[in-house]
Structure to design on (180 residues):
């Protein structure tokens, strides 16, 4: 099943790359432009997103950003970092570090499709394991100005570390991006 998801993700990325269109020299997703984005996060996996939750005296948070460079019209290579923590009502607090590397392709300059690898570490959070996920996502980029977009989307994260978990995670997130 995991091989099927991996093949599907590679096919989507390859299809998007082959169908890259020319003539987008003045757009927000043009070759040579930069992208900085913050996404809503998900406490279920290591993330470069932003979230906060509190329940029964315990709190959990994460803060992170992704950045990218458009190597060609509509195709950006991205990397991201995140830092999070967990403060239980009783006991020791724990923290984690997350990273992401991947690509984002804008179909017709407004439908972002992503393929990336996300990892996390944190001795007090994950024990001896180092979780790793292959993520594929798609959404819609609503450009509210020439340099700002709001990008709601769906994302599926396939676990690549069966010792940590063999379950995938489906999530809805909202991204906020700066294009310059």
């Amino acid at each position: 099943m995991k091989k099927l998801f991996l093949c599907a993700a590679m096919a989507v990325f390859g299809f998007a790359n082959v169908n890259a269109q020319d003539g987008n020299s003045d757009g927000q997703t043009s070759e040579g432009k930069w992208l900085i984005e913050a996404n809503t996060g998900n406490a279920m996996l290591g993330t470069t997103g932003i979230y906060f939750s509190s329940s029964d005296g315990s709190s959990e948070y994460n803060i992170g950003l992704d950045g990218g460079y458009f190597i060609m019209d509509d195709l950006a290579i991205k990397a991201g970092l995140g830092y999070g923590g967990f403060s239980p009502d009783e006991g020791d607090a724990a923290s984690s570090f997350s990273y992401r590397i991947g690509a984002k392709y804008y179909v017709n300059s407004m439908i972002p499709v992503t393929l990336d690898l996300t990892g996390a570490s944190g001795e007090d959070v994950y024990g001896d394991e180092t979780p790793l996920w292959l993520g594929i996502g798609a959404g819609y980029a609503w450009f509210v100005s020439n340099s700002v977009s709001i990008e709601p989307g769906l994302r599926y994260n396939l676990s690549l570390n069966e010792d940590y978990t063999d379950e995938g995670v489906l999530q809805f997130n909202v991204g906020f991006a700066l294009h310059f």
User: Anything to note?
Assistant: The chain has a mean pLDDT of 83. The CA atoms of residues 158 and 168 lie 4 Å apart. The chain has two helices and ten strands. Residues 2-18+29-111+131-179 form one domain.
